Amino acid sequence: MKLTTKLTFWYFGIMLVVLLIGGAIVYYEIQQKLARVEVVRHERLNDIIAEQIRQRGDYSGHPTRKRATITKIPADSMPKGERTFYTRGLEWNPEFQTAEYRLLVTTFYSIKGEHYRVTTYSFIPSFYQLLPGVVNSFQWILLLLLVMVIVSAGLISKYILAPFKRTMRMIQSFDLKQKQGIGLPATRTSEFRELNQFLKKMTEKAQEDYQSLKEFTENASHELQTPTAIIRGKLDLLMESDIRDEQAILIAEMQNALERLSRIHSSLTLLTKLENQEYGANVSVCISLLTRATLDSFGELIEMKSLRLEARIAEKVFVALNPALADLLLSNLVSNAIRHNVGTGGEEGEGLNGGEGGGLGWIMVNLTKEGLVISNSGREPQVPVGELFERFKKGNPGGDSIGIGLAIVRQICDLSRFTVEYFFRDGVHMIAVGFTDQVPASRLLQNLALPLRHVKTVTDRM
Amino acid sequence: MKVLIIEDNQELARNIHDFLGREGYVCESSETLEAAKEKLSLFQYDCILLDIGLPDGSGISLLKHIRAEYKSSNVLIISAKNALDDKIIGLEQGADDYITKPFHLAELHARIRAVYRRKNLDGASVVSFNEISLNTDTFEARVGEVLLDTTPKEFDLLLYFLVNKNRVLSRQAIAAHLWGDYTDNLANFDFVYQHVKNLRRKISQAGGMDYISTVYGLGYKFNSHRAE
Question: Which of A67, A346, B112, B181 lies most in the core, judged by the most C-beta atoms within 10 Å?
Fold first, then answer.
């Protein structure tokens, strides 16, 4: 609910309460006033009657006596202090043949040693006759106020909240990666000014931190890669010199370790960059084409490992993703499926086509509009599959991977708001990436249960 | 070929210098932008190896200068920054290729040759050695007149060998060349072995000499002297 709407509702609610109470007060007041005026009139009438009594004339036909009762009373019945009393109540009005609200005013007089009680009455408008008028007028007031509140809420939100809205827009469009600071509009409202100052400080700090983190990553990358490059170059040169066999082995081992070092380093740098969200510019990428291209580029590897590849790729699947990341995601997934397949697990000496089940391995790629599922045959991982997404977790310790590929996969998926799920059962590894929120990766896995069995029977027959 | 190495790290510059020197290239090095500008104004170079992070500024600024003044030189960026924007900016500003540290020297050499071929030979992009000839436009490999049935990777591998004749190519260097830097994919040497084996078989089936030999423990070597 919008702030102005909320305020309007609250304001209206408060007004309703105030008007109800106000209505009651007005109603009560009018009634009191009416009665008061009548009472004063009757007091004067009673006084006139008392004067007539004092003059001892015959006033029986006089208009003053029309609704008057004069009673002589004993002295002890005279009230002390207050002389005038009045009562109200519904009474039968014979003139109008209806029950009406009657005001009865009684005044006590002592005239020449005699005591008199003079009572006059008249019919006045009742509560119930007044009520509709009060209610009606308050309805109009309420309506008028409502219109005013709505109109003024619109104006307030337009003029008073305008700086706030501008600030909101600026924050929304703010990107940590942008070089310049956030430009917030000037305002005379002190709260908004405070908010803007706070935001400005905060974003500047965030930008600074981001920048220094980025610089650190880049520096670390630069400072470490250069010595690595030197060592690698020296080893390359050393290889060319006249060396003995045992020296060659030493160099080869150094090369291996160096390779690992450099891979770990570049992977970690990449992960940091992903975490820093340094890859902007999501464009619509055709995953269908990219998947085909990736499978093509890995085609020879797949063939060499004697893996059966089955790809069901839906046409024209577009996903908003950075192209470089899309490429990285797919190549990581595919190479993962190749590397951790049955047969050559990467251990040297096992040889190509060797090992148990060599040639029976398969990879299945299934791309739909909802997501991508890559499944492959493989040995049972030695850690729970969920943990494989963590860094340096390997299902097969001592293999030829450094255990960071899936961490990268997950990071890319997190960045792109994809869901990703790893599943293993009966020698089948499945990784599903869901492109949409509606169909999460786990659903994709369920949907795929059937065709998978089909593939297995095919491979069994072979 | 004359090569200018603009690299602030002397050791790395010397590595490149030594390696390319053995190929008969004339190499000169400069460590700063200023020194490089001076050298560029005095001599003409076929290829410029440009580091991005230099003590007195970014190599990108020099790249603009080179593109404006010395159009004929090839520029190959050497950077430790695997940053995507660096790569894009570098190529947009007219660099011919981009190589990330740490690289294998043989890879650098192959890139220099590739850039040189693209630019200087005007379509006649045939690399040949004795009876073997490779057309880098059509990806056709021939032994004499016989067309070799090579896969793209095998073609790539043969070209890599031809460019780096008489050099020991480590299995890591070959794997990095063939498969690039697919993160987390450590070189699988079985594949290297398989590719080399297939390539040797195909060449000898076509009647070519077996120039490629295994270097114990390290990798492989293309020996030009075997033909003699």
Answer: B112
Residue of chain B whose alpha carbon sits nearest to that of A232: B104
Residues of chain B with pLDDT under 50: 183, 227-228
Q: How far apart are CA A216 and CA A199, in angstroms?
A: 25
pLDDT of B81: 65
Give the helix, strand, coil percentages of chain B, each rounded to 5: 45, 25, 30
Asked if the Cβ–Cβ distance from A233 to B12 is below 8 Å, we say yes
Q: Does A335 touch chain B (CB under 8 A)?
A: yes
Rounded to 5, what percent of chain A is helix, strand, coil? 55, 20, 25
User: Does pLDDT of A349 surpass 70?
Assistant: no
Tokens 């010395």 -> residue: B70
Q: H/E element holding B219?
A: strand B219-222
The whole-number average pLDDT for the span A31-49 is: 88
Nearest to A34 by CA among A108, A143, A125, A102: A125
* Assigned token pair, A40: 């004063």
- Across the interface, do B168 and A332 touch by the CB < 8 Å criterion? no
Pairing of strands B2-6, B26-30: parallel
Rounded to an integer, what distance in angstroms lies between the CA atom of residue A8 and that of residue A25? Answer: 25
ipTM for the whole complex: 0.84
User: Is A452's pLDDT higher than 80?
Assistant: no
Phi and psi at residue A28, to the nearest 5°: -65, -45
